[in-house]
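This part of the workshop introduces the protein records we will be handling. Getting from the letters to the C-alpha cells is the skill we practise here. The record below serves as our worked example for the rest of this section.

…
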Amino acid sequence: MTMMLSEKGYKPIVLDNLSTGHKEAARYGELIIGDISDSKLLDNIFSDYKVDSVMHFAASSIVGESVLNPSMYYHNNVVKTLSLLDSLVRNNINNFIFSSTAAIFGEPIYIPIDENHPKKPINPYGSSKLMIERILEDFSSTHKINSISLRYFNACGADPDSEIGEMHNPETHLIPLILQVASGKRELINIYGSDYETKDGTCIRDYIHIVDICEAHLLSLEFLLNKKIDGANAFNLGNGRGFSVREVIDTAKNIVQDDKKSIKENLTIRRKGDPAILIADGKKASQVLGWTPKYLDIRDMILHAWKWEINSSTH
C-alpha cells in the first residue's frame, strides 16, 4: 500500500509495533515503531506530520488463534482501535479507512455475498471486526468521522515486480502455503476435505489480488479527501468468482513445473467452520468507487506469488 501511495505522490507514514510486521516492508514511507494504543505517540505523530487520513491495518487476523485466545483479539482489534479513534477525534482527523473482512458474515445464507447479507460472525476475529464497523457508525454520527470499511475476501498475490509480498509467521493463507512446499520450506500441503458439495469436492473461495485491494484503498482515500462520500461506509472486495482448493493447487503445480519444482499434497478431514463456498458480490464498490479488479485469473495471482516466493527465498 505504501508503495502505491508513494507512486501517486502521497507521503505515507507507517506506525507499526513490528509484532508481526517487517521493517523492510515499510521502505516506501517513514517508519515509526510504536503501538496504536499509545495515545501520546499518536498525538505527536498527528501534530508533527499534519496527518489528514488514516488507514488501519493493525489487526490480529488468524481465525483459529482468535478462538483459542479471544481476549487478545478483542483487546488488540477493538480496545486499541478505540484508542486510535479517540486520537483522531482529539486531532480533528476525519478520514478513516478500515481493513475489515468477509469473516463478519459467518456462514453464508446466499451466494454471492453482498453488503446486505446478514452479519453473524462465527469466531472472535470476525466479531471484533464487526464491532469496529458498528463503532465507526457511532463515531460518524457523534464525531463526524467519515470512514470506509473494506471487507476483503481471500487476499493473495504479490507485487508483480516482486518488490514486496506476503511474509506471515505463521503462514495461514493457502497460496503461500502451497508455494512454500514447492520452494522446500514445507513438506506438503493439506487439503481439508474433498466431500463438499462443489464441482470437485473441495472448498471454493473468492481470491483477490493484493494490487486490486490497494487500488480500492487508494480510490477510497481519494473519495474521502475530495468529500465525495461521508458517513460510515462499507464495501465487499472480491472478484465475484470462485476457485476451488483443487483448482488452486493444480494451477500452482502447473506454474512451478517450469522451475522443475513439485508440490506434495495430503488429503485430510474437514476443518470445523469452513463453508463450502464463499464468493463476494463486489458490485457496490464498482458502482460507487469505480473499482474494477485488474487481476481476475487465478494463474496471475499465483504466478506473482511464486515470483515473490523465489525472490524472498534467495535473500
